């Protein structure tokens, strides 16, 4: 669908607007865009201020033109690319660190700031921003807030939402408001802060964030535990969490992932299930490690190595290679889906076993890894897109895994968001009443439906909606 | 305003309905109801199931009859008592512990369960529910969720919202939905969970909660530090937090509060500012205490005592007596307002100084205490209600303190909620756009405005609203 975006030229913006084909192409896809899914925006706007964002939204809202916020494009569910054309609102020029208040453990930033830049800005004060996702060196804080991202350190420190205190948000009609509070705790009125966080730009556009920071721990150690079976590994994980071991990271990789990483990277991992662990403390770190060791030994750990500094980084390197290894592993196949189902920690062993069983019954290679300490499981499903039968088989396997997670009391997405790819699971997870309530909120805050349409919520009904053609039955767009 | 509630008799409820004068009177006031504020409901319903709550709401919604959820009545801002009559929905009979899943660190409860009963139910498994407020032995989990309560341990463990995973909620029209997820982390759709938490029963009624639990720490020690000046005490607090000392509780009381407690209880506190502190650890607790000690010594601490067990409890006892001491201290004066403003931790010393300055300029006795580690300040303002000049003076002082907190980047209410008493500050804190956005959400989820009307949101306008007579200008009802 094309939209007349000439109104952008009439606005008095600090930033700029492009209709150039390369800008439009660059904003048509992101890390989560699958084969044949890319939809170009009609224009790309590069706002440089809150006033710019407000002016663009107010004008687009009057005209019913879709606006899809875009930043680093690292989302895995096509969260930030258009489904219905319109304006791509690229906020990467709004990347200033506005203020650092070490006495309050706070920093104010614009949404286009890269995650690691926050850490760099405060490192000199001995502070850090704990919940960065693994993509933190390339993704923006705006994107992390949009999906309520989390990462390896979430098991100790919590998710992005736990570290966002206050946001400046522009509503669909251009109204600017501040949600949340710079106080560490508030019960003042409705919690609009957490409503905006994770809403993927469908309820408002974030233009400024106040984040909470933490002091860097004085001691860091970590390492790797190799297990004889996947069952032993996952039961050890569950036991570590319920025993209250103070782990700062607790990651799992299965033997398939180990094989994949060995094939790609210059490492020689034992091709067995293993966990990667890290500890942060101001003192007493060795006692905590002993606590951990006692539990993994009770689960027949085969190898357990702990180190610090470069040696620890070397032990961990295999974990960091997974994303690249997945992309390169099989030249005939592309990632068709990237899962992040999350289940209650006691159900984690069952969930991992369920994925293995799905892989076998569909005859697929499905490597598993993830933020095990949160019950969060990552897995890749790969398909040869020249083989329609395989594509269908892979999609069915992916759906079965998600269904199983929901049956176990879990969620379709722990941290990547719904985007386009997971819309089909929303009602399964939240029920018709849950989806209808989310839709009521969306209609209240964006009555013209201009903010990132075609995301998060499934289509209301095929007749009434302009988005009727976007392939709602399998949650994927088939547009070219 | 009276409402015909005879429709309740037509419902096929498991629970019961009363129109008896003592039930109506008992549901007309709570801990936060001020002189002359009590409004009786026309009927009190005692639902015993989700189906009961759904049937009552559906019927009330059709007829436009207000429904005000009520539980233990321990709210401090008249959160749970009617402003416009109608039905008081007393959920205290829904007090079952439904399921305990130690492998998931989870418990499912009905909303009428008393906080301490949760701890008792899981103590045998070595678990506890960390964010209980000081009222935890008398207040219900439903009330804690309604106000997003917090407490002494929030400085280490977070607030109630951080420990609520999933809620069953009945919407105004009787629709039952589940919000949140039993997974520790989710990015699936809009965060309706945190929208309901803290909404004081104005967006829906909670009928079941899944809570996260934690393992009890193996070591607990705590004690008291006495400071030469209030400035030294508050600067030490700010320094402890920014240095990352792992405190489980960090409370302040000023010399006025110490004097008040001495007058009431059988203790002999030094009449100087002091902090109460507690540490939780699995090991290394003494090293953490040394870390704390070094900081308070740098702030000229006069006395510092640490103990465990009964001896610790004795050191802490004065802190626990404050609520009773406040009520009894001055027989001629009643509490007119109970403040819980919260500011960024670096601003805490200024906030405390501001209250002292307000007390002096208004010639009032305003004792301060509170959850200092969160930047949360409690204070009482007392008035002789036979002296209208004093009442006005006290209200003006109270308002000036709240305004000052908001100016410092803080919030009008850290944990008690808006209720009736803080409505006048909502726009000051969130701006017109913030309040208008909250109102849009309210209208989307409760279009007939039956859920706890007259709370949280200020009146839309005096002409259009049935609530025009509830004394919106000073945020207090003057009805008899």
TrEMBL record, chains A, B:
It comes from the Archaea. SUPFAM superfamilies: FAD-binding/transporter-associated domain-like, FAD-linked oxidases, C-terminal domain. Residues 16-40, 452-480 are annotated as: Disordered. Keywords: FAD, Flavoprotein, Oxidoreductase, Transit peptide. One of its GO terms (biological process) is lactate catabolic process. InterPro entries: FAD-bd_oxidored_4_C (IPR004113), FAD-bd_PCMH (IPR016166), FAD-bd_PCMH-like_sf (IPR036318), FAD-bd_PCMH_sub2 (IPR016169), FAD-linked_Oxase-like_C (IPR016164), Oxid_FAD_bind_N (IPR006094), Vanillyl_alc_oxidase_C-sub2 (IPR016171). Residues 460-471 have a biased composition (Polar residues). The keyword Oxidoreductase applies. It is an enzyme of class 1 (oxidoreductase). Its cofactor is FAD. Its EC number is 1.1.2.4. Belongs to the FAD-binding oxidoreductase/transferase type 4 family. This is D-lactate dehydrogenase (cytochrome).
